[in-house]
Amino acid sequence: MPRVSQDHLEARRRQILDGSRVCFARYGYEGATVRRLEEATGLSRGAIFHHFRDKESLFLALAEEDAARMADVVAQQGLVQVMRELLAEGSDHPADWLGTRLEVSRRLRTDPEFRGRWAERSHQLTAATRQRLLWQRQAGNLRDDVDVDVLTAYLELVLEGLVSHLAMGLPADDLGPVLDLVEESVRRHRVRASADS
Amino acid sequence: MPRVSQDHLEARRRQILDGSRVCFARYGYEGATVRRLEEATGLSRGAIFHHFRDKESLFLALAEEDAARMADVVAQQGLVQVMRELLAEGSDHPADWLGTRLEVSRRLRTDPEFRGRWAERSHQLTAATRQRLLWQRQAGNLRDDVDVDVLTAYLELVLEGLVSHLAMGLPADDLGPVLDLVEESVRRHRVRASADS
């Protein structure tokens, strides 16, 4: 395939993903009709479903992209940093990102088939979080009286709560100190460590 | 009104709430059609809407009932205990309770008018959690280096995460040690306290 054509295809794919992300966030999965997806992407249904087999495949591609983006931030800065960025204004995880994530949550609850298809795609965030914690433990920054798997599950649970909180439109300006507490509770405590030893 | 008639009305109201709770949990708010509410409650639409003005009022009554039930457990045993009960099998907060809660979450996100109506009803859990923490602080069981409002917001955030986790059908058998960590992180640490003083 000539290069220009390949670039064109990728630009189209990008255009569909960006437009439909906003559309899913605004209307939910069921409410994002083909008509609305056309409006949001500025493309015809023929063009859209040339790139994605069906609406479900399009949605999964979006959710997968978000999970990969989060895993990158986790690997570099940790899961608490991902949460801080969610709180910060002008973040590169805007509200439509939350919409995608909450839509995944809802469909996992109501659609057992979707649960199976999503499970294959959702491990990367856990893996990135766990790996980051292992590094922190090696560096002596992590508490060593609690298993890394427990700490991973703890951070993921808090993230899930934060996503839900933000998605509900609840006030979040008081959550900075809460994240400080979360971060502190996985860290090594010098005083306690020396008293134990 | 004669007593027997009053009892009858209350029994009917109960029957409608219990049946529609299951119906909302299974089909979601939009999917719980009047036809399905009739089937789930075993009553006609005339009987149902004699007791509740409309579907929205019925749903709000359910959600309010759940919030009051949780606030009772919090006042007596604390929010971490509510979370432990959510994890326990044979709990009296079955999956349909989760369904109601997640439906509230979803509607808060997509329906600004609902947000206003719900806000009036949602303060009791926060108030109960905060009051319980204040008692614990007076009893010397709570860490005293973090504001009670921050600890309240922290526990509510974890609860929100747990509700979301369970509602998504994710495995929860490994979350007991996570809740131990949450509980420990709001408690007074004797070693650290003596080092500080």
Automatic annotation (TrEMBL), chains A, B:
This protein's UniProt keywords: DNA-binding, Transcription, Transcription regulation
Gene3D superfamilies recorded: Tetracycline Repressor, domain 2 (1.10.357.10)
SUPFAM superfamilies found in the cross-reference section: Homeodomain-like, Tetracyclin repressor-like, C-terminal domain
Residue ranges annotated for the HTH tetR-type domain, each copy included: 10-70
One GO MF term: DNA binding
Entry keyword Kinase: no
DNA-binding positions: 33-52
Protein name: TetR family transcriptional regulator
Organism of origin: Amycolatopsis thermoflava
